[in-house]
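Go through this chain for my students:
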Amino acid sequence: MQRLDRKLGFLSALPMTAVLLLAFLAPMAVIALFSIMPQKVFSLSNTPDFSAYRVFFSQGYYKSLLWSLGMALASTLILLVVCWPLAYGMAKVFGRFTLVLTIAVVMSLFVSENIRLFGWVLTLMKGGLIEGHIRTWTGVGFESPLYGVPIIVFGLVYVYLPFMLFPLAQGIAMVPDDTRQAAADLGATRWQILTQIEIPQAAPGIVVGSLLSFVLAAGALAESKILGGQAVIAIADDIETAFTFGQDWPLGSALSMILIVIIGTFALLGVSRVDLDAIMGRKR
């Protein structure tokens, strides 16, 4: 019976495996092959020379990568701190109001990311919704926070909040209330309960939420363009430029592969430490 179940499971997985091979691995293979081609070519029939990877260092593209990874890390840490109390409330406190909050957060995803970011531009720009009204009422304005690194990080936090919030809430929901109460009865402080019970047992949700937030933020483009005004060039912007205006497919592919390898390494390290069965509610 167990052998039959495995065979049926294998057969059921074949269609999805074929889709993944065609939709994911095939394009990745093309990008990987183009990344080792000479620059400014549009064919895979050339002799590999890895020149695009040398350009990554010689022309300073590594700076864009470091900026992207740094801002992604900063936004992920901020999201973790901001979302923890909200996720805790959703998992343990709010009760039926959790559904209302969930719908409200999900509804934000129905609106284009670019439209929401442009809304912040109109709100925060010089003479915009906030500064314009303050100047009208008080006669005193302020400099716009747009076009800098902090506002880009804010945009990343704003856009990717749901991707941290929901896995984190799922992770916190996995912490048994009896364990927390027993620790409190034994004299544990609130800080001890948080650091020794809640965070370790909610670790799967923390890891998944952090990975989702970091991976998406590292490859983000709209935030640096719309809110940052390209005060900082993100690696995704360099990739787009190489593929479009630069007409340098090998360079764009090399930059893409470097980003994919770095992010993929982080993702694999994180996933290897996550108990997926516990997240899915399955018992071994």
Observations:
- Residues 2-34 form the longest helix (33 residues).
- Residues 59-279 form a domain with the MetI-like fold fold (CATH 1.10.3720.10).
